[in-house]
């Protein structure tokens, strides 16, 4: 049954701080209205407000009665909206805020229940997607009460997103909408929505209003992002000018939230008077109060100062309270000098870490929005020059949006900044309602689509590229870091709905075998053509991998098809990628297997894997050394069908023989390693021919697949290798074979999922648990089965539940109380409790309260004699920039002092004092051995 025809155009601004909704009756486009959103404004008190705060409050069990929980949603007692803000400012660790920012967070599981960030385990938690969905679900509920004959899910809905949102964040926004019951929505970039609203408010006067304007800068500073867009204005005689969006900014997680945090840090320093910093829950409460105070002090006729009071807890609710004053000058100084300083046009953002990193979110390192605007204009200098017909590169008009610009002081500062860069004053296009213009503009866009009168062109905001293999440097040594290249699959400006097919690039794909496509995007001005190849630099933005698998329902097993890629910028505002079957004569001549289907237009959707990004960056390069074929022969001679005819000593020398051919194996790059893995895997059936065969095969296969992820199709390789785990090893009396067995799984642990890691841990737990290991047979087996390697393996299982990791750490510490325990176990303690994980989620680290207890035990060790203990202490106290994970400052100072006295490497000291990346030597020690050349850690957690 088809949905009823929509009765309304609806625009939803799903903001970081507030959600706003506007609507217009279809057929009456001139009457756009703001939807007044009923919500709890206090327990049991309901009011209709123009804005719904994008906030959830998770009350304690008996804090609110059922009568007070109006609009509560199924399965939760959470409070949504104004009352959530009110209650969150008075309570600790129960407020969920900035869920929208978490949708673009690269190192968390967006589906995991992690919010409120850093809250006590007793408090209900929700995933970033479900938090966002709950705001939309509340809108659906209230709308349905008001319009029972026109449910929201049946209307023409536009949801706005930052122009800087990548495909992953856009897809997650659509998923949140789907969870709220909104299955047919379009996405619109927020700066475009602001422009549509301005066009609506100036209809009938657009020609005159834009008479002397050629290039418009839209600067939208929201709660969580700074969104920048350039729109070219072209005259068309006496008719309205033609508007074309020619540039959008890259994602900048920087906005009003950062000002709130800076103010909270200032107030914290006044509250503490040199004492230890506030807890995460206290700081969250303080941050919420600073947000409301900022808005109060930046408003017209604001008071000179406001007193902020941080309540105590329990019986000390009143007596334990602390207060500090925040003045209007404080707010203006931090907002203006810290975030909108008068910088030069050539001043670029500082990529070093800043002091406004909090709550697990990877905020932009550079807080000066002024510098980000300058960098954006410099990146699009050529496009601006063309739009301004060679008269300059700074736009001649600006349109501001976001709650910050309710302040005339901040608005004037932006004008002063841009005017200092331009030979003539910029024209400020008025926006008297910066809180709600995005919602109004979304309705304006929906109306324009309905009437087929879109007013802003531009097509795709970015160019998209498929990373490819090349032979550009075929003679280069394998130790050289290869250059990456990409083929353009969708040029910037491509028309909406127009499919681009990559005719010159074809892929032969086999049924049941996954194929991964790595894409990057580029928002700069350089023109590209479909199929064109370009070098990929750091200016390109990596997208989540694309994966397609041909299933056996649409084809016979072991069949092959030749496909091309088809790419479309959809009218939903997302990227659509498909594999299209090619069935021409040339393919029939070269095909070696049956082609899938007879329909040349058979298509398979290629889906983004929306998940935490790999913590590894790998080069795209399949160039293999000239001696590779000889290496294959060596491996097949030992692990092939005819290997029985080969000298039995060949297996013992295989590793050294391969190094003689291919060079030092520590220099084998990822492409060579994965190619060797494929050859070794073909011989897995012959690994048990002798004790030596098994040991060498285990050693090589793990070495070639380390760290278990980061290269295309590693997840597929892991799935195949995992099939051998239940079989165990053949030669169970060989200590060395057990060592290689555990080392194999340690090397590739990053590619194992939670369930798999728990299975491995369950198999080795009894050998590590001091209570179980007292049993004679367990102790004997532990020694025979390489206990030290089991400890190292357990320590790198970062996806284990926190409770199991804590238990593991406690076991290791107890064992370290005995003199015969290896000092390597201290390394394992540090690895289990590391503040910055190697590949795991940042929300899965052990709580600081437990880590601080472990550090007290480490402090009594002699770090001069026991470097592993010192290294462990560094890992446990290493600065991450996240208050939830970082240890208390007084304890941190003790660690720093002891590191100095113990004359440990200076780099360790730096990593405890402030955030610093691991160097290659420490990275190898952290991981357990060196990573393959070309594989680099991508540091994207809260401190990077």
TrEMBL record:
GO MF annotation list: ATP binding; ATP-dependent protein folding chaperone
Alphabetized InterPro entries for the sequence: ATPase_NBD (IPR043129), DUF3731 (IPR021030), Hsp_70_fam (IPR013126)
Keyword tags: ATP-binding, Nucleotide-binding
Organism name: Methyloglobulus morosus KoM1
Keyword Lyase part of the UniProt annotation: no
Source superkingdom: Bacteria
SUPFAM superfamilies from the UniProt entry: Actin-like ATPase domain (SSF53067)
UniProt keyword annotation of Methyltransferase present: no
Protein's UniProt name: Putative chaperone heat-shock protein
Pfam family, one: DUF3731
């Amino acid at each position: 049954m088809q949905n009823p025809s929509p009765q309304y155009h609806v625009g939803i601004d799903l903001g970081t701080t507030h959600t706003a909704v506007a609507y217009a009756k279809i057929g009456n486009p001139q009457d756009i209205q703001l939807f007044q959103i009923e919500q709890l404004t206090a327990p049991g008190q309901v009011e209709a407000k123009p804005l719904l705060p994008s906030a959830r409050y998770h009350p304690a069990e008996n804090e609110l009665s059922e009568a007070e929980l109006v609009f509560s949603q199924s399965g939760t007692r959470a409070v949504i909206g104004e009352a959530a803000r009110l209650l969150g400012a008075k309570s600790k660790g129960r407020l969920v805020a900035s869920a929208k920012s978490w949708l673009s967070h690269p190192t968390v599981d967006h589906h995991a229940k992690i919010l409120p960030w850093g809250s006590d385990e007793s408090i209900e938690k929700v995933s970033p997607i479900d938090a966002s969905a709950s705001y939309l679900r509340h809108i659906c509920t209230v709308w349905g009460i008001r319009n029972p004959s026109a449910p929201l899910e049946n209307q023409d809905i536009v949801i706005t997103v930052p122009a800087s949102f990548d495909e992953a964040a856009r897809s997650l926004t659509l998923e949140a909408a789907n969870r709220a019951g909104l299955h047919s929505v379009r996405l619109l970039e927020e700066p475009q929505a602001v422009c549509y609203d301005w066009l609506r408010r100036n209809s009938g006067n657009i020609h005159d209003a834009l008479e002397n304007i050629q290039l418009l800068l839209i600067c939208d500073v929201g709660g969580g992002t700074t969104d920048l867009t350039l729109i070219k204005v072209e005259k068309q005689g006496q008719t309205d000018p033609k508007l074309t969006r020619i540039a959008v900014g890259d994602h900048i997680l920087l906005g009003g939230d950062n000002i709130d945090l800076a103010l909270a840090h200032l107030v914290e320093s006044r509250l503490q008077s040199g004492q230890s910093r506030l807890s995460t829950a206290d700081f969250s409460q303080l941050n919420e109060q600073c947000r409301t105070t900022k808005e109060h002090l930046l408003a017209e006729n604001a008071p000179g100062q406001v007193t902020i009071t941080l309540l105590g807890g329990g019986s000390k609710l009143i007596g334990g309270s602390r207060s500090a004053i925040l003045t209007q000058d404080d707010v203006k100084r931090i907002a203006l000098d810290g975030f909108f300083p008068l910088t030069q046009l050539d001043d670029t953002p500082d990529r070093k870490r800043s002091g406004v990193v909090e709550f697990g979110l990877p905020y932009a390192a550079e807080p000066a929005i002024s510098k980000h605007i300058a960098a954006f204009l410099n990146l699009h200098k050529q496009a601006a020059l063309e739009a301004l017909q060679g008269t300059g590169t700074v736009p001649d008009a600006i349109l501001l949006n976001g709650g910050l610009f309710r302040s005339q002081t901040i608005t004037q500062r932006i004008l002063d900044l841009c005017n200092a860069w331009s030979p003539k004053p910029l024209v400020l296009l008025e926006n008297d309602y910066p809180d709600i213009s995005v919602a109004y503009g979304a309705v304006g866009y929906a109306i324009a689509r309905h009437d087929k009168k879109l007013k802003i062109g531009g097509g795709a905001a970015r160019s998209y590229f498929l990373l490819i293999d090349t032979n550009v440097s075929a003679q280069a040594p394998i130790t050289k870091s290869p250059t990456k290249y990409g083929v353009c699959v969708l040029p910037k400006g491509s028309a909406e709905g127009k499919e681009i097919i990559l005719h010159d690039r074809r892929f032969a794909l086999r049924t049941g075998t996954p194929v991964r496509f790595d894409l990057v995007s580029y928002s700069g001005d350089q023109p590209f053509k479909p199929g064109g190849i370009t070098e990929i630099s750091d200016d390109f933005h990596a997208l989540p991998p694309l994966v397609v698998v041909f299933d056996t329902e649409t084809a016979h097993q072991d069949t092959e098809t030749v496909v091309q890629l088809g790419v479309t910028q959809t009218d939903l505002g997302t990227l659509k990628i498909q594999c299209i079957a090619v069935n021409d004569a040339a393919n029939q001549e070269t095909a070696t297997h049956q082609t899938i289907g007879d329909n040349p237009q058979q298509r398979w959707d290629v889906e983004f894997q929306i998940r935490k990004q790999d913590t590894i960056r790998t080069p795209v390069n399949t160039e293999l050394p000239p001696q590779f074929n000889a290496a294959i022969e060596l491996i097949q001679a030992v692990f092939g069908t005819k290997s029985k005819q080969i000298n039995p000593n060949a297996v013992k020398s295989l590793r050294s023989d391969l190094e003689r051919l291919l060079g030092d194996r520590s220099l084998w790059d990822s492409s060579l390693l994965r190619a060797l893995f494929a050859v070794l895997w073909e011989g897995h059936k012959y690994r048990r021919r002798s004790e030596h065969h098994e040991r060498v095969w285990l050693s090589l296969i793990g070495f070639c697949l380390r760290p278990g992820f980061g290269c295309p199709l590693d997840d597929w390789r892991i799935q195949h290798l995992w099939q051998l785990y239940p079989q165990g090893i053949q030669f169970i009396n060989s200590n060395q074979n057990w060592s290689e067995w555990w080392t194999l799984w340690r090397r590739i642990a990053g590619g194992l999922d939670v369930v798999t890691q728990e299975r491995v841990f369950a198999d080795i737990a009894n050998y590590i648990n001091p209570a179980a290991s007292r049993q004679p047979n367990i102790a004997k087996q532990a020694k025979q089965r390489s206990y030290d390697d089991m400890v190292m393996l357990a320590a790198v299982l970062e996806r284990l539940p926190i409770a199991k990791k804590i238990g593991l750490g406690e076991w290791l510490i107890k064992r370290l109380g005995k003199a015969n325990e290896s000092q390597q176990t201290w390394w394992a303690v540090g690895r289990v409790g590391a503040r910055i994980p190697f590949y795991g989620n940042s929300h899965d680290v052990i709580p600081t309260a437990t880590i601080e207890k472990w550090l007290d035990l480490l402090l009594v060790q002699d770090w001069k004699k026991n470097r592993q203990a010192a290294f462990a202490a560094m890992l446990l106290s290493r600065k991450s920039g996240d208050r939830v994970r970082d240890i208390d400052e007084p304890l941190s100072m003790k660690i720093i002092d002891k590191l100095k006295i113990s004359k440990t490497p200076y780099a360790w000291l730096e990593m405890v004092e402030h955030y610093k990346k691991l160097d290659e030597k420490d990275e190898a020690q952290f991981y357990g051995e060196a990573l393959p050349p070309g594989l680099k850690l991508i540091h994207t957690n809260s401190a990077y």
